[in-house]
Amino acid sequence: MEPGREVKGLHVITWGCQMNVYDSARMTDVLRPLGYQSVETPDAADMVILNTCHIRDRAAEKVFSELGRLRLVKDARAAEGQRTILAVAGCVAQAEGAEILARAPYVDIVLGPQTYHRLPEMVARAARAAGAVIDTDFPAEQKFDFLPDAQAPQTPGGLTAFLTIQEGCDKFCSFCVVPYTRGAESSRPVDSVLREARRLVDSGAREITLLGQNVNAYHGEGPDGRVWGLPHLAEALAAIPGLARIRYTTSHPRDMEEALIAAHRDLPALMPFLHLPVQSGSDRILAAMNRGHTAAEYRDIVLRLRDARPDIALSSDFIVGHPGESDADFDATMQLIRDVGFAQAFSFKYSPRPGTPAAGAPMQVPEDVKDARLQALQALLRTQQDAFNAATVGRVVPVLFTGHGRKPGQLSGRSPYLQPVHVDGPDALIGQIAQVEIRERYTNSLSGTLIQERAFA
Ligand code: 5AD
Ligand code: SF4
């Protein structure tokens, strides 16, 4: 911040995916030179940003109800002579910008995910003008060329960080709004990713999760003038001293190329835990979803991954009740789950998204059928998750310690599979990785004992 500049409060509310968490941090970064600093509550804020998600359910309704609440805060501050700039960002802003301004005219700025680098200019315009500023372009310039690099890890304690390397999607799954809200697929250049990763590591990050709507379709321009894929990028990241763990999410089965599978064998820093959404186990529904692969092809990818990295565990997303899904289709999904075995999964009832092909498709599945299928599917997935956690008991796993546990003398960290782990141990281990023998499992965590007091870097 420039010396002498007035300090202003900024409150960011973030809904949705990890990329929104990352984006919120970047919006905070880009506003810092204007004097904005984070504050805990909206009533202390000169600017409030609501970073929204449009992926499922009544996204717009949720936004309008939150805006109603923020309006009261804005009015109360106005009564005391204080101005609050209210901005709506994220995928609902992109999809329903005009509607937001029509229904909530007290909103000052509406901006889509591709224009965050223009935020300072929008704030300046909003501060000057009466009337709202809207920017939901898909600009020709790449926002990452204009945004400052992330200054620090975005998570508490700062030991784990997110880093967006790819954005947008060209796959057009029948049910999904992402290609419309996040735009066409694009990748950040390798140099810019490596520079930001080094900076994050310098500020304390030991683990980086690479983000992208189709992260394994990454194809960034390399310093050698060639196009680098994710395996090549992961290799370069793994060479950064101090960076112990690399993850990436979310991947598409179609982009799970041999070189990436091989990277799981060759790069110990690449964590053996992969989120690889399959959505359905029925070929008919996979085709209707426009996923571009069959259930057998998914099974084959899993086999090859397990061959390359025997301790790899899988996580997935499932949708039940996509238009046209019959009982037999649903059974095929249950069978795929039984065959593959998932350590963790997210599952959803199909929710029609305006403007997507599936929303207008015939043979919508009744709500009660969706409910029953979701219950059955989640019960099966829960059993698998429990079995996976139970199988960890008795094993020795490397744990990255990220902070204190609830009890005195206790440390908390996470396993390669993102399971929270508690042990008794010295504070000096925070930020380090140490081997832990897992002794017990609880509903949402594990506990164990250190088998070597000395950490390795
Ligand atoms: N209905 C239900 N679930 C959806 N997802 C995306 N769009 C929809 C929708 N319209 C789920 C998919 C995706 C995850 C991020 O959200 O499973 O992988
Ligand atoms: Fe949506 Fe499909 Fe693209 Fe994933 S691959 S973001 S589900 S359109």
Give the helices and strands, then pairings:
Blueprint: E1 8-14, H1 18-31, E2 36-38, E3 47-52, H2 59-79, E4 85-89, H3 90-103, E5 109-111, H4 119-128, E6 133-135, H5 143-146, E7 160-164, E8 166-167, H6 178-181, E9 186-187, H7 190-202, E10 207-211, E11 219-221, E12 227-229, H8 230-238, E13 245-249, H9 258-266, E14 273-275, H10 283-288, H11 295-308, E15 313-320, H12 327-340, E16 344-349, H13 367-392, E17 396-404, E18 410-414, E19 420-424, E20 433-441, E21 446-450
Total domain units: 4
- Rough outline: globular
Largest sheet: 6 strands, parallel
Q: What structural category characterises the helix and strand content?
A: alpha/beta
Termini separation: 35 Å
Instruction: Report strand %.
Output: 15-25%
How many beta-strand runs?
21
Number of helices: 13
Rg over alpha carbons? 23 Å
Percentage of residues in helical conformation: 25-40%
Order of strands across the main sheet? 2-1-3-4-5-6
What is the second-level CATH architecture of the largest domain?
A: 3-Layer(aba) Sandwich
The oligomeric status of these chains comes to single chain
CATH topology of the largest domain: Rossmann fold
The low-confidence runs, each spanning 5 or more residues with pLDDT under 50, are: none
What this model shows, in words?
The radius of gyration is 23 Å and the shape is globular. The model has no long low-confidence stretch (mean pLDDT 92). The protein is an alpha/beta fold and 457 residues long. The relative contact order is 0.07. The protein folds into four domains: 128 residues, Rossmann fold (3-Layer(aba) Sandwich); 119 residues, Transcription Regulator spoIIAA (2-Layer Sandwich), CATH 3.30.750; 120 residues, Transcription Regulator spoIIAA (2-Layer Sandwich); 57 residues, Nucleic acid-binding proteins (OB fold (Dihydrolipoamide Acetyltransferase, E2P), Beta Barrel). 35% of the residues lie in helices and 22% in strands. The protein has 13 helices and 21 strands. A six-stranded parallel beta sheet has the order 2-1-3-4-5-6, sandwiched between helices. Strands 17-18-19-21-20 form a five-stranded mixed beta barrel. Bound molecules: 5'-deoxyadenosine (5AD) and iron/sulfur cluster (SF4). 5'-deoxyadenosine (5AD) binds next to strand 15.
